[in-house]
Every structure is written in structure tokens, then in C-alpha cells.
Design goal:
heterotrimer, A alpha+beta (97), B alpha/beta (295), C alpha/beta (389), A: 97 residues, Alpha-Beta Plaits, two-stranded parallel ribbon, elongated, B: 295 residues, alpha/beta, Rossmann fold, two-stranded antiparallel sheet, 37% helix, globular
């Protein structure tokens, strides 16, 4: 699958900085999980795999695996669009602890 | 085959970005790239999407992507398209993503030039109706009555005093091969227009409403609701321009309440009943024109 | 082949020999002839390039940057207000390390409006990160069109290159020019190859933001790249001489400077007249010399200080003024003299603004003034000190 991925953490010192403003595409060094105050939780019994949450997620963190929504919590910002869009009510929002 | 959630490319090309939660613009960029696929070459001017997607070494595009100058989305697209052609590369799509200010204000000259040359590019205007990246200032696409940080709502002036610039028809007036309006609220309609555009030779322009919860003053979970309601209440229309003709993609028999749409958003909270009547009347006038003149 | 060409036409001939893939340009006097000629060459098939009719100078350079980011050779040309209109893109192109070549027809800047030549347009952009060369005649214009790509695209440099031609005096004046053959040009200029490009097989994110932690490193590298152009210019000129039989002299062109007591430093097309006057003064027993600056960036600090190290006085003649201070070329030279610990008296002469003629007599007077020490630090030719105070 093509997707930007998180790389090993390192400091970008003199030698790591390129000559030009050009660099490998999709190079990530940080996640977004710290942004959340609430998190979506999928009730797999209710999820019908309709993919609407996947289609409308601004961060692309929802994939459908074995017909159920699966959330990448490393990059979910907890906006709750998925929960609102879900017709069967399979995604609830829970407070982050 | 028409584009739907099921047929959409599973790859995620725009990922790990730092857009605000619930950002409509990032949703537009994400899904357009899924339609165009890995050989999309994206140009993004200074603005929200470049600010949240390209902070070295956090680079959030899996495909080729480059930031242009604020005014230079279309002109850089032209150069890239010509350059790739010169290299003998055929299977690619040069696509630009500029906001409302980057399109209707500072970038309109370069866009007009590209359409005039009929360069083979797709230009997506993601319209969140103000300069959101710099902190919600009025753009040429800010609607009448909206409060922004440069159109304050006081007792003398009720926010923005001018209506949205009509970018769709301005672009169509160039006799562009394809132009369309869309909203991130009706994703299938939007993405099928992108798919259609990708198969047409010449310049293509798609204007997509992409709500900004931060600037509009709505809950971050309500982006899609707002993006649907703006169409349902008739303040935005879904249409295409093709073969020298305008065509509505949907022609609602009835509209939902303009007032309900406006009252949900903090940027319109100050509007008087009279202001809302002005907005409703201008909606009706627009639709009268559309129904009379378009197919 | 010998041809009778204007500076603009000679430059266009040079560009045809360099075979850029993409030409994007917007017309402005006195640059127009270059783009007219290039469009004719594309039309008649003698130049295989995409000629893109952009709607502004900003788009001209933005489009060239797009082409360069796509990995191909790009060219544009402008002048004066057009250069200033695209100024944002100048910094963008150098920061992005896009080795674009641009011809600038040196022209006065409004207000008041004026289409004639001075160098205030390009000299205002010395800090933009571009290599800047100033041609003296039509032959050098053509030769710089070719050499500029060699230098700009060199792997250790990868920096955009601005070639300046004095408006009208050079752009529109006809001279005998030797136009090399395409075979010779091909032997000289290798095809453009770079990793600094969008690539479907190896996708890139380009022209990104860089925060305080890394930004200064990018800027340091940009600076050192312009400095690295110095040996590359020499390399290009050596190779050029081997193939074309014309040897250039690097960052400066010194004339009778070695034993000169009084040296006039200048740039551009006025240098020819200065040399003529030097000969005249020498015939009268005055040891005069001329240093013509060929490159303002990278700045020839060492070369200039070496050339004037034995002089008794130095004059800097330039078609520029940085209002409230002095001519920018003069500032640069004074900084170089100071850095070298030289205390030779230096005087600034501002002339030629808005195309005003600089006469034989003006140059003789400059030499007389620096010889007698009867000159202010900054002198406007034709205006007496205190006339307007």
C-alpha cells in the first residue's frame, strides 16, 4: 500500500539537510494522536462495512478490514465526522484518558 | 465505472498532515488524489494545505507534490505539465489545489492565463470562504454577511458587505473544456467530476466547497453536515460546464431553510432577519437565473 | 558563422544553441526582441522547445520553476518592472536550486517611467540568490547564454543565473558576432541532469517549509553554492576557449590595471569607452586602468582587491543609486577593500540613470577628479555637489 509512513526518529543535522528543497515523498517523523480529546470507537457488531466513515475521514485514518472499520489511532485527530456519518451508529466517541 | 467508496484507490496519498480536526480542505485533497492515483503531480500554493502538509522533515504527500508561490498555482502547473511532456512522460496528471483566496484573488490571473492557453491541467479550488491559514480574513469568495477578522460584525457593518465572486462562471466564460462545482458533503458527485475531468484534454476547473470548522464556527464533527446543507438550502449549486453549456447536477424541488444553515455558524450569528432576507432573496434570484438559462 | 546581430538577437542565438526545453516569457521593452526571435525559431523548427505565452512576468518565472522542477532546462527573459514583478519568484527559484537562466535587459525603474538603460533593476536583486553576470557586447551576450547554463546546472552549483544586458545600448545595438555551430555547442554544454526533480518512479515533496532548526542550514548551503560557482566559471571558460577559441577572464576583466595608479571600476557596456579613455590618458602619461566587473554574484572581492592593491585611487562608476546611501556596486567594493585591509581612496560616480549618456569627457573628468582628490564620496555625474540641497 502506498501511504506516508513514520520513519525512525533522528535529528536532522547539517549532513541530513538536502542541498535543495527536495526530499523523499511521504516521509513522516511525528504522529497526531496527541491532538485528540475524544476518540472514535467502532462497535464491530453494528458496523456493516459501508465505508462512509472511510470516505469522509479528512485524515484518511479509517480502513475497512474484513468488512469492518479499523482506525489508525496514531493519526486520528478525534474530529468525530466518522461517528456522525455512520448510519448504523457503529462508531461512538469516547473521552481520551 | 463510477467512483464510490468501494471503487476508490485504497492508497492514502495525503496522510499525517497537520490540518485542523475536521478540515474540509484536507478531505478534498485526500480524495482527489485517490481518484487521480499515484501519478498525480500536485501543486499547492502557500496556504492551508501546503502549511499543514510540507513541514520538512514531515512531508505528507506520498505522490509527487510541490508548493508554488501564492499567485503561481496555475503557472507552475503549466511548467510542470510542459516539462513532463518534454521528458516524454505521458501517464501523469498535473493537479493544483488552491484555496479560495489563492484562486479568486491572488491566483486568478495565472489561472486565467492557463485556461487561455488550454494547458492540460486540473485545477481544484477548495473553497472554505476566507483566508483561513492566516487567521480567517475576508477573501473574494467570502459570502455576504460573514464575519471574518477583517470584516468584523458591529452595529454599523454586519460582516462582509459583498457577495461571493462567481468563480465558476468566470472560469466558464473562458470557454474552458470542463468546469464543475461540488461540495465535500456530496463526495460521490465531487469525485465523479474529478474522474470525468481527468479524462478530458485541456484545462479543467473544479470548485469544491470545503468547510473550515475553525473559520465557520461549527463543531469539528459538523464539516460534512455543513457541506451538505449549503447545497440543500440552495446557497451553493452543483453544476457542470461542458461543450459550451451549463448543466445542473442536481435541481432540488425544495430548499431547506437558509436561516437554519446560517444560524448554526458563528460567522453568521450576528445577522439580522433583514440580512437573512437579503441572502434568501439573492439565492432565489440566482436559481431563477439558473433555471431560466441553464439546461 | 559571422552575423551582424543586436545584443538581444545574439542572446537569442545563444539560447537556441543551448536548446532549452521550456521558454516562458512575457514581453517588456527592451527585452522583446529576444522572445520574438525565440518564438520565430520555435516556429521555423530550428529550436525544439515549448514556447509558453504566460500572462505576466510572475507567471513567466513560476512556469520556468515548474519546468525546472519537472527536470528540464528552462529559459525566461525580462527587464525592469517585469523583474521587480517577478521578484518573489527569484528568491523561490534560488532557494529551490532551480538552475534557470534568465536574460535581463537592464532598464530604469519607475517612477518616473523610463524605458532606457540603467542597472537599478538587477542590482536591487543582488540578494535574491541568483548568479549575476553583466555582458559588455553582443558576442559576450551570446557566449554567456551558453556558459550560463553550464555554470547554473553544474552539480556543485545548481543555482539560477541572470545574464544582464544594458538596455538599448547593448540589446539594440548591432555588432559583428561569431555564431558557433550546434555541434560545437553540443560539445560544450552537457544535457541537463538532476535529482532535484519530480519523479514518478521516485516521488518527491518539493519546495517545502523548513523551520528554524533546519532553515539556516538550507540558507548556508545556498550561499556556499553561489561561492562554488567561482571555480566552475573558470572551468566553463577554459572549456569554452578550447571549443570556441574565445577566452574570458573570470569574475572581472582588468585592463591596464597591473601598473595603474588610477583605476576605474565599472560594469556593462560602458567599459569599452572607459578603456578607450584609459588609452588616451596613458598617451598623456597618466597611468590609468579599468576593471570591468563581469559577475556581481558571486562577488569578485578577492579579484578586485588584488587588481587595485597598488592603485593610488579608485573610482566606481555605476548606473545605480541606493537612495540615502551610495551606489550598491560601490558599497560592495568598499566592503571588499575593507576586508582586504586596503585604504586606497575610493570614490563613487553615479551616471547613466534613465539612459542618460555618459560621455568621453565624463570619464576623463572622473580620472581627473580621483587623481586630484577633488571628489566627494558619492558624485552624480552632471550634478554639482550641493546643487539640490
Amino acid at each position: 500500500m502506498i501511504k506516508p509512513t513514520v520513519r525512525e526518529k533522528k535529528n536532522f543535522g547539517f549532513a541530513d539537510v538536502p542541498e535543495d528543497t527536495s526530499f523523499e515523498a511521504g516521509y513522516l517523523v511525528s504522529v497526531n494522536s496527541g491532538w485528540r480529546s475524544i476518540r472514535p470507537v467502532v462497535n464491530t457488531d453494528k458496523c456493516i462495512g459501508c465505508m462512509q466513515c472511510y470516505l469522509y475521514c479528512p485524515d484518511g485514518v479509517i480502513s475497512i478490514q474484513e468488512n469492518k472499520a479499523v482506525i489508525d489511532y496514531d493519526f486520528c485527530k478525534g474530529c468525530g465526522i466518522c461517528s456522525k456519518i455512520c448510519k448504523p451508529g457503529a462508531i461512538g466517541m469516547e473521552r481520551e484518558r | 465505472m463510477s467512483i464510490s467508496a468501494k471503487t476508490l484507490d485504497k492508497n492514502e496519498y495525503f496522510y499525517g498532515h497537520k490540518a485542523c480536526a475536521g478540515c474540509g480542505g484536507s478531505l478534498a485533497v485526500r480524495n482527489v488524489l485517490k481518484v487521480l492515483g499515484k501519478n498525480a503531480v500536485a501543486v499547492l500554493p502557500a496556504g492551508c494545505m501546503s502549511a499543514v502538509g510540507f513541514n520538512f522533515p514531515q512531508l505528507c504527500f506520498a505522490n509527487n507534490a510541490i508548493i508554488s508561490t501564492f499567485a503561481g498555482t496555475a503557472s507552475m502547473l503549466t511548467g510542470i505539465e510542459a516539462g513532463f511532456r518534454r521528458r516524454g512522460i505521458k501517464d501523469f496528471t498535473a493537479v493544483g489545489f488552491a484555496g479560495d483566496g489563492g484562486t479568486a484573488d491572488i491566483g486568478i490571473q495565472a489561472l486565467s492565463g492557463a485556461i487561455d492557453r488550454n494547458d492540460n491541467i486540473i485545477y481544484i479550488c477548495y473553497d472554505n470562504e476566507a483566508y483561513m491559514n492566516t487567521g480567517i480574513q475576508k477573501s473574494g469568495l467570502t459570502p455576504f454577511g460573514a464575519k471574518t477578522t477583517t470584516t468584523p460584525a458591529g452595529s454599523n457593518i454586519h460582516g462582509n458587505i459583498r457577495p461571493k465572486k462567481n468563480m465558476f462562471e468566470i472560469v466558464a466564460a473562458h470557454d474552458i473544456p470542463y468546469a464543475a462545482t461540488a461540495t465535500v458533503g456530496y463526495m460521490n458527485d465531487f469525485l465523479n467530476k474529478v474522474e470525468k475531468a481527468s479524462k478530458i484534454q485541456g484545462t479543467k476547473y473544479i470548485h469544491v466547497i470545503a468547510p473550515c470548522p475553525t473559520g465557520w464556527g461549527i463543531p469539528v464533527s459538523d464539516t460534512i453536515d455543513a457541506a451538505r446543507e449549503i447545497v440543500d438550502c440552495g446557497l451553493w449549486y452543483l453544476a457542470e460546464y461542458e461543450n459550451h453549456e451549463f448543466k445542473l447536477s442536481r435541481d432540488p424541488k425544495t430548499f431547506t431553510s437558509v436561516e437554519d444553515y446560517l444560524r448554526k455558524q458563528a460567522r453568521f450569528k450576528h445577522l439580522t432577519d433583514e440580512d437573512i432576507k437579503i441572502i434568501t432573496d439573492s439565492r432565489d434570484k440566482k436559481w431563477e437565473f439558473i433555471r431560466k438559462n441553464w439546461n | 558563422m559571422e552575423k551582424f546581430l543586436s545584443g538581444d538577437e545574439a542572446f537569442a542565438e545563444g539560447i537556441r544553441l543551448a536548446c532549452p526545453d521550456v521558454i516562458s516569457a512575457y514581453p517588456i521593452t527592451p527585452q522583446t526582441i529576444v522572445v520574438e526571435k525565440l518564438s520565430e525559431m520555435v516556429e521555423d523548427g530550428s529550436l525544439d522547445a515549448e514556447f509558453i505565452h504566460v500572462e505576466s512576468e510572475h507567471s513567466a518565472l513560476s512556469c520556468a520553476m515548474g519546468a525546472s522542477a519537472a527536470g528540464v532546462r528552462a529559459f525566461t527573459a525580462t527587464s525592469s518592472q517585469g523583474l521587480l514583478y517577478m521578484a518573489e519568484c527569484l528568491y523561490y527559484a534560488s532557494g529551490g536550486r532551480f538552475p534557470i537562466v534568465m536574460m535581463n535587459a537592464n532598464r530604469s525603474t519607475a517612477l518616473p517611467w523610463n524605458i532606457y538603460g540603467d542597472q537599478r533593476d538587477s542590482l536591487s536583486q543582488l540578494d535574491s540568490g541568483w548568479i549575476q553576470a553583466y555582458a559588455e557586447n553582443a558576442q559576450e551576450s551570446l557566449d554567456l547564454a551558453l556558459m550560463s547554463y553550464y555554470i547554473a546546472e553544474h552539480k556543485t552549483v545548481s543555482t539560477p543565473f541572470m545574464v544582464n544586458l544594458d538596455g538599448f545600448i547593448l540589446t539594440h545595438t548591432y555588432e559583428q558576432v561569431d555564431v558557433p555551430t550546434p555541434e560545437q555547442a553540443e560539445k560544450f554544454l552537457p544535457p541537463y541532469e538532476t535529482e532535484n526533480k519530480l519523479d514518478l518512479n521516485n516521488p518527491k515533496n518539493m519546495a517545502f517549509s523548513a523551520g528554524p532548526d533546519t532553515n539556516y542550514i538550507f540558507k548556508y548551503k545556498e550561499h556556499t553554492a553561489v561561492r562554488r560557482a567561482v571555480p566552475v566559471i573558470q572551468e566553463a571558460e577554459r572549456k569554452f576557449a578550447e571549443i570556441f577559441g574565445r577566452q574570458y577572464s573570470g569574475l572581472i576583466d582588468a585592463y591596464q590595471a597591473e601598473d595603474a595608479d588610477y583605476i576605474l571600476i565599472t560594469l556593462g557596456s560602458i567599459a569599452g569607452l572607459c578603456r578607450e579613455m584609459t588609452d588616451k590618458l596613458r598617451a598623456d602619461g597618466i597611468k590609468a586602468g579599468v576593471v570591468r566587473i563581469r559577475y556581481m554574484r558571486p562577488f569578485p572581492a578577492e579579484e578586485i582587491t588584488k587588481a587595485v592593491s597598488r592603485a593610488k585611487a579608485v573610482a566606481v562608476l555605476e548606473k545605480d543609486i541606493s537612495f540615502g546611501n551610495e551606489g550598491t556596486v560601490f558599497t560592495n567594493i568598499c566592503s571588499a577593500l575593507h576586508g582586504a585591509g586596503l585604504t586606497v581612496p575610493a570614490y563613487n560616480f553615479i551616471g547613466g540613470l534613465g539612459g542618460r549618456n555618459i560621455s568621453h569627457q565624463d570619464i576623463i573628468e572622473i580620472f581627473e577628479k580621483i587623481q586630484s582628490g577633488n571628489a566627494g564620496r558619492v558624485n552624480f555625474i552632471g550634478i554639482k555637489e550641493g546643487e539640490n540641497s
